[in-house]
């Protein structure tokens, strides 16, 4: 606890709602990370799927982000968050439990895995929008960056443990017990979500679904900081997911690594994300928020580009896995720096009645590229070979990582200055635009 700042210690000790929501989110994160790695791993090892099929299974988990993010924002703005947090956790747990039963009854099929991935992905969209819209309502404004740092640290720990646990459990206990563990984690998240009290829906005026969705999109896209962050996050997530899909095929079929070794390499790499999450606020204070944002994305791209560079050297299996993990450490550190400040900006700029809409709109752009990245990764691995594809994706990622260098966010010293950058252009626009955002 010594590495946590005083604000986080106070929140965990005195803010019951934050403690309950964070506990549930921690369980959900671990379950999600285990599931995200488990489903494509099952496709490669148990179903003997092609690279394109592996990419499809990964992509299906993220397609609902594109189709339902804006709907989720509207729902979250109209209903108490506890209901959404509990229901979506139960749905994900049930889907995984059914996969475990199907495996025990006679073996999984690709159709069952794809269907479960779609259900889990749909529930995850609503859960994440509800969680991220709830946090600013239960945490003081001056503590949001620290709370997001803890949130990102928890996510990083789940990234560390999830893939490693999935590979270990599948290897030692089999598929059905592994699915049961993931289902139990989501059941725990549902219980923690049920303890949330006193947080109501913001009571936005009732209007048609299309009008509500359009209003959220216009508001989000009218703010230059959010627009730039959306674009950078979308490009980065496209390449991250594309790279991970190629890497899974590359590591198993060209490097000869087993599921456990691949999970360990990716999981240990999340130590970098954990470290970045815990020190992000301090780094932002020393080198400014703008530099942390821009530098973090470039560092993330450099980390992934180190992966094929390491694999090109003739090394023993243990040394290879260790160096691959180190490359993912660099990547995770950079991703964490960006995420902590990007999420904090997204939560502090909009008013309460726009939090759900802004969160959903941002996630549509930022995460909507994930299914495309997953499918493109599998297709590239099949068309070019995983060895060539992993280099192409890595170099492309490095090129797009410089997007924020051309944004006014680059010069923002603090979150408050970045917030003012978002308000400035709006005040220069028409009075109608000003009044519509108020």
Description:
With 438 residues, the chain is mostly helical. It has one domain (13-195, 209-426): MFS general substrate transporter like domains (Growth Hormone, Chain: A, Up-down Bundle). Helices cover 82% and strands 0% of the residues. It has 18 helices and no strands. It has helices at 6-14, 16-45, 51-60, 63-78, 81-106, 110-138, 144-172, 175-194, 209-221, 224-253, 259-287, 289-311, 317-348, 355-367, 370-384, 386-400, 415-428, 431-437. α3 runs antiparallel to α15 and α10 packs parallel to α15. It is globular, with a radius of gyration of 21 Å. The two termini are 40 Å apart. Residues 424-438 have low confidence and may be disordered.
- Mean pLDDT across residues: 79
Beta-strand content bin: under 5%
Annotation field: number of helices: 18
Say how many strands there are: 0
What fraction, in percent, of the residue positions are helical?
A: over 70%
CATH architectural name:
Up-down Bundle
- Going by helix content, strand content and strand pairing, the class is mainly alpha
CATH topology: Growth Hormone, Chain: A
CATH class: Mainly Alpha
Low-confidence stretches: 424-438
Shape: globular
Major β-sheet annotation: none
Supply Rg.
21 Å
CATH superfamily assignment?
MFS general substrate transporter like domains
Task: Report the end-to-end length measured between terminal Cα atoms.
Answer: 40 Å
Number of discrete domains: 1
